[in-house]
Write a structure and sequence with these properties.
With 93 residues, this protein is mainly alpha-helical. Helices cover 32% and strands 8% of the residues. Strand 1 and strand 2 form a beta hairpin. It is globular, with a radius of gyration of 15 Å.
Length: 93
């Protein structure tokens, strides 16, 4: 491991870097899989919905836009919940 991105990849950390228009400039493989978007796309094209710990909708895109507008760093911890059939190829019933 020669550089920082090698360490990030080895730890399987999901990260992305966006510009002021929320266009994705850099994205890790893990983030591509989790968020279902890629480099060059806009973060608003993400097909994932976000909820808080009480399962109320959370406007993560608004949080990201606010962080970009104020030039501040934003760290968001996400938990991923996929239906069982997506993980095993079997039905939940």
């Amino acid at each position: 491991m020669n550089n920082f991105s090698d360490h990030i990849s080895a730890m399987e950390i999901a990260y992305l870097l966006v510009d002021k228009d929320l266009s994705i400039l850099e994205i890790s493989h893990q983030a591509e899989v989790l968020l279902r978007v890629g480099k060059g796309q806009r973060l608003v094209d993400c097909s994932v919905s976000f909820v808080d710990e009480d399962y109320y909708p959370r406007d993560v895109l608004k949080e990201v836009q606010s962080s970009v507008d104020s030039h501040t760093e934003l760290n968001i911890e996400l938990g991923i919940n996929y239906p069982t059939e997506m993980l095993s190829g079997r039905s939940c019933s």
